[in-house]
User: Which sequence fits this backbone?
């Protein structure tokens, strides 16, 4: 039996709070209800990555000036 690994970034969120709220919906209304996710096998893994301004993270200040 083959296993499918899906990585799908969702970049439609302007704020971390919106991504957290969406993840909670997935966990409670989709993944948490077998009828809503009949093809789900195992426990899904989701991560919220917060992307910082690369220049500010690299040197601690704004290089764009």
Assistant:
């Amino acid at each position: 039996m083959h296993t499918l690994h899906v990585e799908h970034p969702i970049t439609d969120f302007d704020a971390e709070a919106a991504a957290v709220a969406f993840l909670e919906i997935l966990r409670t209304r989709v993944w948490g209800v077998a009828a809503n996710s009949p093809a789900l096998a195992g426990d899904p893994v989701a991560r919220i990555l917060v992307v910082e301004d690369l220049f500010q993270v690299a040197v601690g200040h704004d290089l764009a000036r």
